[in-house]
Amino acid sequence: MKEFTLLRNDKFQILIFSIMFLFIWQIVAVLINNDIYLPTLGQVFNSIDEIINSKRFCIDIFSSVGRCIFSFLFALITALILGILSYANKIFRNLLKPINALAQSIPTMVLVVLTLIWFDKDDTPFIVGFAIVFPILYESVLGSITGIDKKILEMAELYNIDLKYKILKIYLPNIKFQLASILGSTFSLALKVVIAGEVHGQPTYGMGTMIQLEKINFNTSGIFGWIIIIILISLMLNICQKIILRRVFIWKN
């Protein structure tokens, strides 16, 4: 009975399928016998070991993660300010609509190319990360405020509740609740976009810079090594983010 329950466990199934995927990868890599197309698991792990032991590994990691956090926080703060202003002023909201729609429709690679033309290569990953994440956060903030039950606001007006109390007890909880559902995905998106900007912008330090270097050298195992490192970093950042969100949203319990 316990064995049957274990087989139906989602985490156990994911583990089994992951092992199966790695097993198939190894077999295909051995059959192809060409590490440029598909390296073996052993070659990938050797590349990871070389990457971790390189002198610039920590600098590359902190540079990319720092750009990601900075661009995300800047986008979040800007989205909060502009979202509140858009709610308060319809003209300002209509002014931002075409700008926001344009930012959402431009392909990431096109945005990277334009940013490289207009700005310094070291600034490109940050600007691209901000431009991709900001529209999502802005729409979420504006939607959370406009979605507040009108009856609650009418009741607050009826009892002459002051603006400070309404902000702290009505507006902010709704904004936080709405943002909590998308922060994880948008932060992961910011990390991917920042690294994509680094691949094309080639700043002095960054994971994307090293991926481009591996590509130039036809070192596919090195590219896969960086992919695995990025996945692990993304998972760790998501875990940290969930811990922070639990503390921020302890009022929900």
UniProtKB/TrEMBL annotation:
<comment type="similarity">
    <text>Belongs to the binding-protein-dependent transport system permease family.</text>
</comment>
<protein>
    <submittedName>
        <fullName>ABC transporter permease subunit</fullName>
    </submittedName>
</protein>
<keyword id="KW-1003">Cell membrane</keyword>
<feature type="transmembrane region" description="Helical">
    <location>
        <begin position="216"/>
        <end position="237"/>
    </location>
</feature>
<keyword id="KW-0813">Transport</keyword>
<keyword id="KW-0812">Transmembrane</keyword>
<feature type="transmembrane region" description="Helical">
    <location>
        <begin position="69"/>
        <end position="87"/>
    </location>
</feature>
<feature type="transmembrane region" description="Helical">
    <location>
        <begin position="125"/>
        <end position="145"/>
    </location>
</feature>
<dbReference type="GO" id="GO:0055085">
    <property type="term" value="P:transmembrane transport"/>
</dbReference>
<feature type="transmembrane region" description="Helical">
    <location>
        <begin position="99"/>
        <end position="119"/>
    </location>
</feature>
<feature type="transmembrane region" description="Helical">
    <location>
        <begin position="177"/>
        <end position="196"/>
    </location>
</feature>
<feature type="transmembrane region" description="Helical">
    <location>
        <begin position="12"/>
        <end position="32"/>
    </location>
</feature>
<keyword id="KW-0472">Membrane</keyword>
<dbReference type="Pfam" id="PF00528">
    <property type="entry name" value="BPD_transp_1"/>
</dbReference>
<feature type="domain" description="ABC transmembrane type-1">
    <location>
        <begin position="61"/>
        <end position="241"/>
    </location>
</feature>
<dbReference type="InterPro" id="IPR000515">
    <property type="entry name" value="MetI-like"/>
</dbReference>
<keyword id="KW-1133">Transmembrane helix</keyword>
<dbReference type="GO" id="GO:0005886">
    <property type="term" value="C:plasma membrane"/>
</dbReference>
<dbReference type="InterPro" id="IPR035906">
    <property type="entry name" value="MetI-like_sf"/>
</dbReference>
